[in-house]
Amino acid sequence: MARVYADVNATLGELWYDYDNFRIDWSTPERYEIVRRVGGGKYSEVFEGVDMANHDQCIIKVLKPVAAKKIKREIKVLRNLTGGPNVIALLDVVLDESDIKHYTFQLLKALDFVHAHGIMHRDVKPGNVMVDYQNRKLRLIDWGLAEFYHPGTDYHIRVGSRYYKAPELLVGYKQYDYSLDMWSIGCMLASMIFRREHFFRGSDNNDQLLRILKTLGTEQFDVYLRKYSIHFETDLESLLTNYVKLPWSRFITPDNQHLASSEAMDLLDKLLRYDHQERLTAREAQAHVYFSVCFRDDILRPLD
Prior knowledge:
Layout: H1 8-12, H2 14-17, E1 32-40, E2 44-51, E3 56-63, H3 68-81, H4 98-116, E4 119-120, E5 129-132, E6 137-140, E7 147-148, H5 167-170, H6 179-194, H7 205-216, H8 219-227, H9 262-271, H10 282-286
Antiparallel strand pairs: 1-2, 2-3, 4-7, 5-6
């Protein structure tokens, strides 16, 4: 037991420390303007900014997709400590819903170009996407696992990062194609919409497949294996169990319901498919109704 302040939280009560049930009151970001980047790390980017309401300088911390629990904890701590001596004050908490659409669209645009030039990236994940928030630009990086696509060719299945691996990699199907990248896009979109750091978070490849099966169900998985004559063997009882497909609404909470529109759910459903031939292509995804609304100075022109 700590020698000092051991009973502080018990004394202050549950409302003081319970961040799990803490409800965030989001503001809109129009009041703040980014000036320049001053730092960043695995979970956030930090910028110097200006509060346009009073022209005061401020620091803007842009969180990358992380677990809602982590966001709540940090905000709750800062809310409680704001005003303390030499402790940074939390000025505001803002949420820009348009960012998800904007940057997802830009990533799809990049992948359509890549695929149209006969190349699979094979490691699409948040860590390989660099974002310039000030200029609202995006860059797809790290081409170490990229490969040229040739129909009917067997490719190495030990590519990609576990949380973003498509089912074909997890069952050993080697004649995959560009749609491998589209599964990864779907995983990223699900993380952002449902505010989960990783939507499918397996501890190893078998557990990764199990997480997918428990979400998408086993009925279509069996159809997929038969269609492509995939001989999938396992001794794990959990991977041989039947699971019912969960509706996407199962993942909607009070904290993410403002992001989980019917259009978003439909796009997710068409990206996260077992059958790689059924997934939307990057170009088809850009034309989805989810992206039909224009944001700020972004103009989403019809595709050629």
